[in-house]
Amino acid sequence: MLKSAVPVAAAGVLVAGLVVAPPFAPAFTPEPGHAFADGQRASRPSLRATRLEAPAGITSATPTDNEVIEEYCVRCHNERRLLGNMSLEEYDAADAPANGELTEKMIRKLRAGLMPPPGNSRPDDETMLALVESLEGQMDRAAAANPNPGRRTFQRLNRAEYGASIRDLLDLEIDAGAYLPLDTRSANFDNIADAQLLSATLTDGYLRAAAEISRLVIGDPHVTPSESTYRVSRWDSQSERVEGAPYGTRGGVSVLHNFPADGYYEFRVSFHHETTGALVGNGRNALHTREGEPELLEISIDGEPAEVLEVNRWMHASDPDGLNIRSGRVFVRAGPRQVSAAFIRRFEGPMQDLISPHDWSLASTSIAGSYGFTVLPHLRDLAIGGPYDPQGVSETPSRAAVFSCRPGPEADEAGARACAREIVTRLGSRAYRRPLSEENVAGLMGLYEACII
User: Fold this and answer.
1) Are residues 210 and 269 in the same domain?
2) In the chain, what is the straight-line distance between the N-terminal and C-terminal CA atoms, in Å?
3) What is residue 410's three-state secondary structure?
4) Buried b vs exposed e over 327-350: b needs ≥16 C-beta within 10 Å?
5) Confidence (pLDDT) at 363
6) Structural contact between residues 186 and 194, judged by C-beta atoms closer than 8 angstroms
């Protein structure tokens, strides 16, 4: 139980007039105005200045917790006044766990010194401390005897957590945003369980992600061709080398792409155009090429050149294929590969512009041909299509992370099932972050059994 409590006290009850004293002569109490022999007159005694003490040898009785609450708390927290939206008329301090929620509220207020409020009569510190420790002790003993951590709100993985889980379990880098919608935020946090509702759209996203990611991890020799597009921001520099691209290049884009199978793939690059439809940066001063020498764009895979494309400075948005350039089909093996589409660098040093260039390369397509500005051709996106004519699936880091055992071609059904059990038990333990129970293993093996039927 989390303790949050504050010094509370219950005033000691003076019992001098309640105890039985030994017989002695009653004290003379003069009436107000009584005349004494010396001419003095008696006045009404002041209660504020009078201190009553018990006779010698007799101690004060310690008030019970209920008496303290009755004297100092119930005057405000009763059914009639109901201050703080709470009533202590029926509260029994001797059985505090019976009303645990109310007891916790009392402990927090008492430990903070907020009750009784300033200006109201308060018990002494010892009495207040005794009361709060009594309530805390009862709650602690009840919690230890009947542990109840409470109900945990259902919590799903957000996009960042989902991507990290796939990377740690399957050694595969993915963009979770390609499968899952934006996460709901609470106080600008996207990992608050109360805000993470599981909608039909999210469920569909998780199922779609699981289907596609499993094919990328294991590989699919019968996969059909598809196209993935990677956008290039207008604010990405086209004069500096992009991280991941080979040295000696500038601009363009470099991405980590997962190829699902060995086969032939096609690459398409498109460019930004001016408001007139002409290629941005088609001027001689922008292209930095000699007469008759076109701008060159290199497609590389894992740093190795795959194809070099010529950029036609006269291409136009109204052309049949627009401002697109397509490569021939290139053979690529399955697995994650660093794919770059970047311009071959032909110049070094600062640009001799009338106005200092922006940090980004494409401030506006409207000034692309203006005098005094160096505007370079700007890549808009890179598309990777395939595989065409799949040739199988090579060994990949993801397959190595999954297949800790491989039944041979002569293995019987029992051997294959034993290997599958070893794989799901190992992956399941890492996913659940604990050893799997037999029920957990049976549930995962049910998926395997359903697939082999």
Assistant:
1) no
2) 51
3) coil
4) bebbebbbbbbbbbbbbebeeeee
5) 56
6) yes
